[in-house]
Amino acid sequence: MITAAPSLLTPELRAALRAEFPHLTVRDIDAASVLGAGWCVTALRVRDIVVRIPKAAANIPSLDMETRLLPLIAAEVPFVPRGMRALRAPGGALLATAHEYVDGVASKAGARPRQSRDRLAQQLAVFLSALHSFPPERAEVAGVPRRELWADQYLPMLAATRPHLSALSAHWVDAVYARFLADGATRGTPSVFVHGDLGPEHVRLRSDGSLSGVIDWEASMVADPALDFAGLLNMFSSSFMERVLRYYAGPSVVRDDPGLRRRVAFYIAVVPLFSVQFGVETNDAAELRAGRVKLAARARAALERPPTGP
After folding, report:
1. What CATH superfamily is the domain 5-100?
2. What is the DSSP letter of 146?
3. Is 96 exposed, middle or buried (0-12, 13-18, 19+ CB in 10 A)?
4. pTM of the predicted model, to two decimals?
5. What is the tens place of the pLDDT at every residue in 80-105?
6. Of 59, 79, 236, 280, whose CB has the highest number of CB atoms within 10 Å?
7. Low-confidence ranges of the chain (pLDDT < 50)
């Protein structure tokens, strides 16, 4: 259940909001509406401002990082939210973040006219090219972590989630991981600045299907660029991802990477493990169940798939 907007806007947060955005009136703040709630934040709209409130103290460091990062990259990476501010308590503690509202709706894989699809592919290619070309050392100065995804994320996630999977799902996940490791896992992978959480709710589209903005940057890292292309594949078709790659003009180490698609396939295959992990860590039974159901469906589909090869 999402808490009503007025109860989330504490007196301290209201004061911080008015201090950072003097054009907002008391009536504007009282009329705040809930845009949605993710795993880490609840987002409110206050007139032309988005306020993102952490759900737990553990979420504050990544949001604080975002307040340093977005102003740093906004001049060089298109489609980034503008006007990012930190809303702090008098003692300096972060209460929430705020930025200008990004109009649009969540991206979906629904049918669009060919011209609209091509324009969106070009825009996403421009976005990813600039993002992946941004100097990683500058992003790290803002607090963006550097991660080796196999060792730092995917192996620990398997250890944390496997006890909560059905026998069928665990067997399938073990096989997917084993094949990926046998093929080299992430050995020799380039590291670039990535968004890290591209998904339908974070890629916003205008009514004509064009890209209006990319939001929610708290999962940013210096890591494998295949993770961002897996995000595209999670939203759109493989042919659309290939179209984006044709327009992509990012670093040559990404453009010429022979293992990119192999790693994309692995990252997209095990996406439901994130839901399982989140459900376990937060005692969210619904999220845990959703991840388990999706994994079981993939495991059953693999069993029904005819064997390939001789």
Report:
1. Phosphorylase Kinase; domain 1 (3.30.200.20)
2. B
3. buried
4. 0.93
5. 999 999 999 999 999 999 999 999 98
6. 236
7. 1, 111
- Residues in CB range of 287: below 8 A, 6 or more apart: 275, 276, 278, 279
Instruction: Tell which residue, 54, 60, 46, 64, has the closest CA to residue 101.
Output: 46
Q: Residue for token digits 């084993």?
A: 178
How many residues are listed for the chain in this entry? 310
- CATH class for the region spanning 105-304: alpha beta
Report d(CA 245, CA 254) in Å as an integer: 10
Three-class SS state of 283? coil
Taking the domains of the chain in order of start, what are their residue ranges?
5-100, 105-304
Backbone φ, ψ for residue 257 (5° rounding): -75, 110
pLDDT value, residue 111: 46
Contacts of 263 (CB under 8 A, 6+ apart): 186, 189, 224, 226, 230
Tokens coding 147: 């991660």
CA distance 64 to 291: 29
Comparing CA positions, the residue from 127, 165, 96 lying closest to residue 249 is: 127
Question: How far is residue 40's CA from residue 43's CA, in Å, rounded to a whole number?
Answer: 10
Percent of residues, the chain, with pLDDT higher than 70: 94
Q: In whole angstroms, what is the distance from residue 31 CA to residue 25 CA?
A: 10
pLDDT at 38: 86
